[in-house]
Amino acid sequence: MSELPVPKWAVRVAEGLGAGPHVVVTGISPSGNIHNLREVLVGEAVANALRARGEEVRFVFHADTVDPLRKIAPGIPESFEEFMGHSLSRVPDPEGCHASYAEHFLAPFEEALREMAMDVEVLRSHELYEGGVYTEVTREALEHTAELRGILQEVTGRAMPEGWSPYLPRAASGKLTGARILEHVPEESKVVYVDEDGFEDAADYSKGEGKLGWRVELAARWKALGVTFEPFGKDHTSRGSSTDTADRMVCEVFHYPVPGRHEYEWISIKGKGPMSSSKGIVLLPKDLLRIMPPDVLRRMMLGRDPARALELDLGEGFPRFMDEYRAETESYPAPFNHLVTVAQTVGEDVDAAAEMLRRGGYEEAARDRETLARDLAYARNWAEERAPESVRVRLLSAEEAREAEEGLDDEQRGYLAAVAEKLSPELDGEAVQDLLYSTALERGLKPKKAFAAVYRVLLGKTSGPKAGPFVAGLPVEMVRERFSV
Ligand SMILES: [Zn+2]
Questions:
Q1: What is the rounded CA–CA span in Å between residue 334 and residue 319?
Q2: What is the DSSP annotation of 34-49?
Q3: Cα–Cα distance between 132 and 134 in angstroms, integer?
Q4: Residue 81 pLDDT exceeds 50
Q5: Tell me, what's the pLDDT at 280?
Q6: For the segment 119-159, what is each residue's pLDDT rounded down to a tens digit?
């Protein structure tokens, strides 16, 4: 994906990082619907900025599949309470369609990343633990338990419980919480612990029989994977937060440099508020990819600089966003609103759409049929799923049109008949717009009333899309018939 344009802010961030090789990491817990595309896109942009200057880069999406289930996501049955504290990779899929709870939420996100042709390695943390990637850092953490505890207490200002350990062994019950470590046997990569119910057992940390607590894991992960850059949402970087503790842990305990960082701000949805899985305010990547291509989605989610908050408007403001983007990348794009009208008028008939665009004066936009078919699908999905009511149109049948005509007065009938006489297939969108307007003036009819007549016999409404290109795009014979009332 080296051909992706590299945003200026990403070039600046990359300039702040030293010489490579680089490992760019983004991490997300698949504890519910994954909507945090901004995090991954920030990582991708910085990875590409580094690649663009010739660095060797490994770009990793670290799915925190070993994390314990902490709360029940919206829509998940209450019965899942029994899995509280179990690794997400070991909790069943609530809908039974994937191997685990973690996979159920991770799979669609991974699918969206593939659809975006993202050059990223998706790693599952339970596999990393089972494969021994975290063995050495876990041993180090256990050996420096007292120092880690001290850092946590100093930075967060909270007293850590007696017997606190950086490592959470998985008890026979499946729970990662509630055990107390009795002994560390480093030469066997083993801890002996007593579980909540008072039973003594041992866990081999080289085989994934537990995990590091999340604050320690963040620092340990930087070292275990050799991370040089990781973006963070602003909640992770406030005072006393996980990056504050991890920064000290990685320097003082793991003796590894703090990776480069870029903080990103939240995305909110116009009319709803900040995106939040727990509040059910989410836009999933797969839903966004129904209304725009991957390059537009990248631009939309990143904004001008992801350090700024962003409000997404997928309703009324969306066509303007699409037009601005396409004006930069295409030579003669048809306005998105017009595509929306065309898509709703011709259905899935790409040839008819091309013909309608050509007659409306957007010949260039109709040239590449493959791109046109794709753009029409985005326009149609947007109209059906997110457009305001005013943009939704449906061409009336001949019979419906006859009924709609009954609401017209004599002035309007006379106007439509006059337009019908002058219409010809040679007129493009702008010419028809002029014709509709000048005919109204000639006949002393207010333009608003004149145009209302046009919309009424075609769409059964009193307003609609820009009339010129719309009328010009329809077969002249059909328009004449509708207008001769
Ligand atoms: Zn599933």
A1: 11
A2: ---HHHHHHHHHHHHH
A3: 5
A4: yes
A5: 77
A6: 999 999 999 999 999 999 999 999 999 999 999 999 999 99
Phi, psi (degrees; rounded to nearest 5) at 230 = -150, 125
If you measure from the C-alpha of residue 98 to the centroid of ligand 1, how many angstroms do you get, rounded to a whole number? Answer: 4
**Nearest by Cα to 342 from 313, 375, 317, 316:** 375
Q: What average pLDDT score do residues 3-17 get?
A: 90
What spacing in Å lies between the alpha carbon of 61 and ligand 1's midpoint?
20
Helix, coil or strand: residue 177: coil
Say if residues 264 and 306 touch (Cβ distance below 8 Å).
Answer: yes
What tokens does 294 get? 């991957």
A 10 A CB-CB count for 420 gives: 16
Q: What average pLDDT does the structure give for the chain?
A: 93
Instruction: Estimate to the nearest angstrom the gap between the alpha carbon of 293 and the chain centroid.
Output: 12
Q: 423, 417, 414, 469: which is closest to 445 by C-alpha?
A: 414
With a cut of 50, say whether residue 2 has pLDDT above it: no
The partner residues of 397 in beta bridges, in order of sequence, read: none
Distance 346 CA to ligand 1 centre (A): 36
- Biggest CA pair distance of the chain: 97
Check the CA dihedral 237-239-243-247 and report its sign: positive
Distance in angstroms (rounded) separating the CA atoms of residues 119 and 181? 41
Q: How many residues does the chain have?
A: 485
Chain-centre distance for alpha carbon 370:
24
Place of tokens 């969306």: 318
Q: How far is the CA of 108 from the centre of ligand 1 (A)?
A: 9
From ligand 1's centre to the CA of 417, what distance in Å?
59
DSSP result, 120-157 = -EEEEHHHHHHTTTTHHHHHHHHHTHHHHHHHHHHHH-
The per-residue pLDDT for 1 is: 41
